[in-house]
Amino acid sequence: MPGPGPHMMYALGTGQALMSISNGRFSPHHCIIYALNAFFGPDIGSFAEWLTSTVGLGHVFGSSVETFVHDPLFYVLILGLPLSLLYARVSRFFVNKGYLDSITGVGLTVKQCFLLISAGSLSHFFLDHLFEENGHSTMYTWILSTGWWEGRAPVNPDAVVVIGFLCTCLIIGFIHINRY
Fold first, then answer.
1. Of 70, 85, 108, 172, which sits most exposed with the smallest number of CB within 10 A?
2. Is 70 exposed, middle or buried (0-12, 13-18, 19+ CB in 10 A)?
3. Closest of 71, 62, 64 to residue 42, by C-alpha
4. In angstroms, rounded to a whole number, what is the distance separating the alpha carbons of residues 107 and 87?
5. Residue closest to 149 by CA, chosen among 131, 135, 128
6. Tens digit of pLDDT for each residue in 75-110?
7. pLDDT at position 52, please?
8. What sections of the protein cross the membrane (predicted)?
9. Phi and psi torsions of 109, nearest 5°
């Protein structure tokens, strides 16, 4: 399964393609919501598992969250509506402040956000299943540099911070380029 970087680059690339062929109906505004859900969406359970085990809250809570949320259908069913409401509100805020442009001048609706969350989840799992070989393939190891572990994979907190910073820079750069 690829890391967050390939998910973000694939989603932003796909979003750029959709923006170019949709005559403005798929805007940077849509692309950013889609990319966020393809990047972090279903992996929020894995992140919760890593965070709870790192902070010392126990592996059980994070593991139970990861089991339910890292699924193409359950992610949308469990977190689709709450995230849609959040994204719609944030979307209105960003349009009103001028951080994101919208052809109509209004933010995304809850229904649009829900559909973008669903598309992001499916995009995320498309990449996950494309590279799914359980780490046994030399090509998989070479491309993604993940290796194969017995038990839990070691997660370096510094790598989490660096990848988070780089993906944040991608999002901010995308907003900056499409704003000016």
1. 172
2. buried
3. 71
4. 9
5. 135
6. 888 889 999 999 999 999 988 888 776 777 788 899
7. 73
8. 73-90, 102-127, 159-177
9. -80, 170
